[in-house]
Amino acid sequence: MDRPKDRQHFYKDRTTVYLVLRRFLREGLRGLAYRKPPGAPRKFTPEMAAFVEERLAEDRVWTAPQLAEPLAERFGVRLAPKVVARHLRAMGYV
């Protein structure tokens, strides 16, 4: 097969074909395994989770928007209340 037909067969852009071929030549079959694409680093850190747990241990009721404020003050990272709520669910609180 010639290269354009190879690309049509695999439904891939020329750049993708060359990247995969280069990875195969460098790493063998292991280079063809699926890899999760890198993304942005997580904003919610284990330290933040510990901080949230400390707040939730206090004798009061916290909402996600109320937790977002002290998190921003303490860690300098603004999280949307929706994101805080998602992490609360993942931690088993909601």
Distance linking N and C termini = 56 Å
Overall residue-averaged pLDDT value: 87
What's the helical proportion of residues? Answer: 55-70%
Taking pLDDT < 50 over at least 5 consecutive residues as the criterion, the unreliable ranges are none
Question: How many structural domains are formed by the residues?
Answer: 2
Percentage beta strand: under 5%
Count of β-strands: 0
| Main pleated-sheet profile | none
What Rg, in angstroms, do the CA atoms define? 23 Å
Q: What features would you describe in this structure?
A:
The chain has helices at 3-10, 14-27, 46-57, 64-75, 81-90. The chain is mainly α and 94 residues long. It has two domains: 3-32, no CATH class; 46-90. α4 (64-75) crosses α5 (81-90). The longest helix is centred in the N-terminal third of the chain and has 14 residues, at 14-27. It is elongated. The mean pLDDT is 87. InterPro entries: Homeodomain-like_sf. This is Probable transposase. It holds the Pfam family HTH_32. Keywords: Plasmid.
Comma- or semicolon-separated keywords:
single chain, 94 residues, mainly alpha, 2 domains, elongated
